[in-house]
Each structure stands twice: as C-alpha cells, then as structure tokens.
Amino acid sequence: MRNSVNFSGLIILFLFFTSCNKSNQNNQETILKGNATLLVDETLQPIMEDQIEVFESRYEAKIKLDAKSENEVIQALAKDTSSIAVLSRKLNEVEMKIFESRKIIPKVTPIAIDAIAFITNAGTKDTLIALSDVLDFMKGKSVGNIKGLVFDNPNSSTVRYMNNLAGLSAIPEKGVFSFGTNNEVIKFVSDNQGMIGVVGMNWLSQPTPAMQRYVDKVNILSVKGLKDSNYYAPDQNTIAEGKYPLARDLFIVNCQGYSGLGMGFASFVAGDIGQRIILKSGLLPVKVPPRKLVIRKEITNDKN
C-alpha cells in the first residue's frame, strides 16, 4: 500500500514539474517573443515609439519603453536594470569593461542618423545662426543675437554633445537653462523671443497632436558649421550629404548576452521595415530602403 502511495506521489510530482517546464518554455523570451524593457535616450523617444508599435503588431512581443536622460540610460545599463538601450553614442572603454567583467560583449547596431536642431521663436526674423556663436555664448562670451540657450536636461545627450564641441566639462550656469524634456524646451521657446532652444530633430519632425501648435510657433534655424561659409537646415538631404554640422549617429546597444528580444528588435529596426519607419520620420536611415519600379512593356487602359 505504501509503495502504491509513493508511486502515485512520484507521478504527481512528475506531472507538476512537466507542467512547470512547459509553462516556462511558453513564457521563454526569444528574438521575436516575450517581454523586455527598452531604455531610450529621451531625445529619441518619438521614433522609437513608432518602431515598438509596429514591432509589437507583427510579433508576440511586448516592449516597455523607458525614456531617460543619456546619463540615466547608461547608469541603468551598468546596474543591469535593463539590457537594451538606444543611444546617440557607443559605449566608452570604461563602460565596456563593466560588461566584459560579466562575460558579455555588447552588440551595437547602427540604425539612423539624427540631428540636433536649434530653434527660435517664430517672431524672430533671423533664421540663420553660426555654430561658433553658440559655442562662444556657452563659453561666457557676449553674442548679440543670443539672449539665452535652452536645453532639455543637464544630463542629456544634447548637453553632452554641445559641451564636447565647446570644450566644456559641465553645462554653463550663465545664460544657459535646462528643463525636463524636449517638449518643455519647445513650449518655452515658442513664447520667448531671443531664446535659442537645443532639441533633438525627431521632436520637431514628429510632434504629437498636442505639441503641433507649439512647433508651429518656432523656427528651425539653419546652421553654419565651424569650417563652412554656408548655412544648412537639418533635413535628410543635408544630413545625407554630410553638410549639416550637428548630425549624430544612433545605435541600439544590446547587452542581454543571449538571443533575446534585444537581438530581434535591433534586426527589425535595422531591416527594411524599420528603416522605412525612420525614413518617414524625417531622420536618415543607415540603409535607404529601395524603391521597386514595375516597368510595363505595354500601356493598357485599366479603366476598361
């Protein structure tokens, strides 16, 4: 009788663990299935929202977008609170060593070329600005046509980018202001003449319906580079030709260390559909999607 009870117990345990294993297999993350969190540099949020929406509509995947400043994204990666990120730079040597200590080699996928844009109130007549004037203002010099510079966040990628150009280690205190988001910068500049806003181009090319009225009240300035005599607006043509002086590469950094959604999502964004989404957004894809032309030998009357 005891042997019968023990045998029945073994069968129950076997069925229990088999059921658990099947459940774990069904919930296992693959390159096109499962759940993941994507850390995104806040200046790149609109385009990544579009990418996630299309990706989720095609696959059994759920990706949570977590938009932060660039510094916060890097810190979250280092603490392993998420293993996938979208950045406007590659990881540096110190950051790479953190992952090397974990036996992980981050996979970096180029996905697009973005631009940092200067904006001003639509009532301002001058729509041209020299990059050298902006950098001089950041260094504390007086520049007649600039009353102040407005950034999104002191820890953002735009601040880091401009500080590097100006040779500064921190955001200047005099005449330079920072808010929480790109939207707040756009709103402030739309109501204040003489202020120059510094934002990611994606926020201007893809504004939300609520932000459209503020974007309509600002001018996107054409910029003269440090070694150029011409002014160029930030658009796909000038970025592709290498003429706009504030263009920057965008990357998906996958630190998962296994074949998960990070790999699948990066391949999707770098693939045909993802690159078409980037092209439509106003940014420049790393691979311009081909256009298929159908050449007909005869012209027929389709109406008949």
TrEMBL record:
<protein>
    <submittedName>
        <fullName>Substrate-binding domain-containing protein</fullName>
    </submittedName>
</protein>
<dbReference type="InterPro" id="IPR050811">
    <property type="entry name" value="Phosphate_ABC_transporter"/>
</dbReference>
<dbReference type="InterPro" id="IPR024370">
    <property type="entry name" value="PBP_domain"/>
</dbReference>
<keyword id="KW-0732">Signal</keyword>
<feature type="domain" description="PBP">
    <location>
        <begin position="34"/>
        <end position="271"/>
    </location>
</feature>
<dbReference type="Pfam" id="PF12849">
    <property type="entry name" value="PBP_like_2"/>
</dbReference>
